[in-house]
Amino acid sequence: MSKENILAVENLVMHFGGIKALNDITFNIKKGSVSALIGPNGAGKTTVFNCLTGFYKATGGHIRLTTDHKDTSVIQVLGEPFQPLDFVSPMAFIKRLKYKMFGGSHLVNRSGLARTFQNIRLFKEMSVVENLLVAQHMTANRSLIAGILNTKAFREAEEEALQKAFYWLGVVDLVSHANRLAGELSYGQQRRLEIARSMCTNPELICLDEPAAGLNPSETEELTKMIRILRDQHNVTVLLIEHDMGMVMDISDYIVVLDHGQVIAKGDPENIKNNPKVIAAYLGAEDEDEVGL
Ligand SMILES: Nc1ncnc2c1ncn2[C@@H]1O[C@H](COP(=O)(O)OP(=O)(O)OP(=O)(O)O)[C@@H](O)[C@H]1O
């Protein structure tokens, strides 16, 4: 894999019983890019995200995440099945067993990948700032004993977490809403809060599942600006699933198009706009004017 790629997906397969949701998906995502995964309903986009983030254990294939500090096989950290070699090498057996027992999506997040969901999944009964503090529990330097004794290190960790929460609230323009319940925010604000919450886990790659769904045009414009800020000022690579073609074409450096669980096209927006396979298969229309490309 090229050093420039933060993510390499190779021959990814996901079956649900007889349904072949993903059939041999291969694509790479370059570090520092904004890339989009598009395709018609049911093409397999969310299933790809679910395999990347550990919500599903892929049926086959490889997913390699290369961040500044780690080179991670996502499928391995999720606990892939025992392989013949494991029964020959005790070390390989122990390693596999460790991942099977303690692996999971938390390890994918620790490796530098975070996501948001198609349906907003905030803690709606908690305040805005509490949502961001919860997101930091894996990284914050805290222990039960330190909490009971209220040690200096504990207080410093609390202060740091609060500072980070307010930093990201500033980026997504929600500082003045910090103490409101998350469930009381407008839809657009909740979407921004979800992004801030993901950013509190220090990802190098963030996967956004339909971030513009339900937003009005001015909110979509704000979101587009924010995604650019993430890429340009925070060195974050962004991979998004989106049906708003205007936004996708405007913001993406690279686009992967899926249809019926297969990649039918990859390339820059100009390339994708003019690809007859995409126009016909993805949007089911011959005329690109009809489909907004
Ligand atoms: N947990 C599951 N069990 C069974 N089938 C599933 C499951 N998750 C997804 N599928 C199937 O996999 C296929 C791809 O679904 P997926 O949600 O990934 O599509 P999508 O491209 O994200 O669609 P949309 O744009 O509507 O969100 C569909 O046929 C879907 O019914």
From TrEMBL:
<feature type="domain" description="ABC transporter">
    <location>
        <begin position="7"/>
        <end position="285"/>
    </location>
</feature>
<dbReference type="GO" id="GO:0005524">
    <property type="term" value="F:ATP binding"/>
</dbReference>
<comment type="similarity">
    <text>Belongs to the ABC transporter superfamily.</text>
</comment>
<keyword id="KW-0029">Amino-acid transport</keyword>
<keyword id="KW-0547">Nucleotide-binding</keyword>
<keyword id="KW-0067">ATP-binding</keyword>
<protein>
    <submittedName>
        <fullName>ATP-binding cassette domain-containing protein</fullName>
    </submittedName>
</protein>
<dbReference type="InterPro" id="IPR003593">
    <property type="entry name" value="AAA+_ATPase"/>
</dbReference>
<dbReference type="InterPro" id="IPR027417">
    <property type="entry name" value="P-loop_NTPase"/>
</dbReference>
<dbReference type="InterPro" id="IPR032823">
    <property type="entry name" value="BCA_ABC_TP_C"/>
</dbReference>
<dbReference type="InterPro" id="IPR017871">
    <property type="entry name" value="ABC_transporter-like_CS"/>
</dbReference>
<dbReference type="InterPro" id="IPR051120">
    <property type="entry name" value="ABC_AA/LPS_Transport"/>
</dbReference>
<dbReference type="InterPro" id="IPR003439">
    <property type="entry name" value="ABC_transporter-like_ATP-bd"/>
</dbReference>
<dbReference type="Pfam" id="PF00005">
    <property type="entry name" value="ABC_tran"/>
</dbReference>
<keyword id="KW-0813">Transport</keyword>
<dbReference type="Pfam" id="PF12399">
    <property type="entry name" value="BCA_ABC_TP_C"/>
</dbReference>
